[in-house]
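> example.struct
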């Protein structure tokens, strides 16, 4: 039986810096190489927030006046597949990936990057060629945020943007592996390759930072210092593996001084994206330490490293999606979760319905939540 257009509800951004609105939309059947997903759960990430709150970041949406279905973290069940789809069948459980992995291009086979030649931000706004979209509102095209649009009851995604996972996992729990956990954990384990006995610090204890903390802990770090201006983050930080918690605003000395006194850091993770934090984190390293930049920052943020520092062995790494090859890594992380070796349930502090999404983002902004999950 061929698939038909579906009418459903979705959260739409009409213009950067304005709240999402709930809309009735249509979702066309998947075309060649595409899959239509019935979303089961989606998470609210600060990266969505940056666009909703209108922060001027280095990534621009270029909506050209078109509305866009938002959300990039989520999990669901394959409802229908288009021609030539080979990796999934109707009924399979999947996590959506905001970076494609076609497994055919030169970049996908390069061991040092998780970028795919089809991963330009612009190309993920559309389906197929000629700027088509499968989602529409009153017949008008709706763009797709990162090619995933998880804040919709149904979404059409390219086959290259889904990771098939075991049906044993509760999608309402593992959906956060699609961004927060995948990014933070892989940044520590796959990219920085944190070593046993090391000294690490993580700036920003949201879901991304706490996942990096968990990665540092499982990699055997000896000291893990959580750094956050919100004291309420201390208890969850310790639960995820922090051995210390520091609030720079009440420390009584500079954070660089504090870290100098303990010999400097082997690894510093920026999970915020602010210039002052980048400077502090870089200047808190020991001579050969590594800075891992995860936070999506204001436009023009920079890390300045002198040649003398680099000659000593200092490294600066950018962790886009944790530099993981997402299809396999997400599947592996789900298996690790199922076997009890990836204790991430504590990251989900709130569960809401799609109608309450704007309140969910308000709470994220005010620091009252870690991950809020929409249950469809
Ligand atoms: N690189 C990637 O692939 C990637 C993927 C996902 C998210 N991100 C980015 O990671 C960052 C974190 O996302 P999240 O969802 O965990 O955010 P979040 O808002 O839940 O957490 C941010 C934390 O940083 C703390 N904070 C803010 N300013 C601070 C300061 N000056 N000093 C110390 N602590 C401070 C806040 O109190 C909060 O606990 C965002 O910038 C997001 O856009 C990047
Ligand atoms: Zn995210
Ligand atoms: Zn590719």
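> example.seq
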């Amino acid at each position: 039986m061929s698939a038909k257009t579906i009418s459903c509800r979705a959260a739409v951004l009409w213009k950067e810096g304005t709240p999402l609105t709930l809309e009735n939309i249509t979702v066309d059947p998947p075309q060649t190489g595409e899959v239509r997903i019935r979303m089961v759960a989606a998470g609210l990430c600060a990266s969505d927030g940056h666009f909703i709150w209108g922060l001027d970041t280095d990534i621009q949406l270029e909506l050209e006046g078109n509305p866009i279905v938002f959300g990039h973290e989520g999990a669901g069940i394959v409802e229908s597949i288009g021609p030539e789809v080979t990796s999934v069948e109707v009924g399979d459980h999947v996590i959506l990936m905001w970076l494609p992995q076609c497994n055919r291009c030169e970049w996908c086979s390069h061991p040092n990057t998780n970028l795919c030649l089809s991963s330009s931000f612009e190309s993920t706004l559309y389906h197929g060629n000629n700027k088509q979209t499968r989602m529409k509102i009153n017949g008008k095209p709706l763009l797709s945020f990162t090619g995933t649009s998880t804040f919709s009851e149904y979404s059409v995604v390219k086959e290259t943007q889904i990771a098939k996972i075991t049906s044993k996992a509760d999608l309402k729990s593992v959906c956060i592996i699609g961004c927060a956990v995948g990014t933070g954990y892989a940044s520590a384990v796959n990219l920085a390759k944190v070593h046993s006995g090391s000294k690490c610090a993580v700036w920003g204890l949201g879901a991304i930072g706490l996942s990096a903390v968990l990665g540092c802990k499982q990699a055997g770090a000896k000291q893990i210092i959580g750094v956050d201006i919100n004291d309420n983050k201390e208890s969850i930080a310790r639960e995820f593996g922090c051995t210390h918690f520091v609030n720079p605003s009440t420390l009584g000395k500079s954070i660089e001084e504090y870290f100098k006194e303990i010999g400097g850091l082997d690894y510093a993770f920026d999970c915020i994206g602010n210039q002052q934090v980048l400077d502090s984190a870089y200047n808190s390293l020991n001579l050969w330490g590594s800075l891992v930049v995860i936070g999506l920052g204001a436009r023009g943020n920079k890390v300045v490293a002198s040649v003398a520092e680099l000659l000593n062995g200092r490294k600066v790494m950018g962790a886009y999606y944790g530099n993981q090859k997402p299809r396999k890594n997400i599947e592996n992380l789900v298996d690790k979760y199922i076997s009890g070796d990836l204790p991430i349930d504590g990251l989900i502090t709130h569960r809401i319905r799609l109608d309450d999404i704007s309140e969910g983002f308000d709470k994220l902004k005010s620091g009252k939540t870690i991950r809020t999950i929409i249950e469809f």
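> remarks
The chain is about 25% helix and 25% strand.
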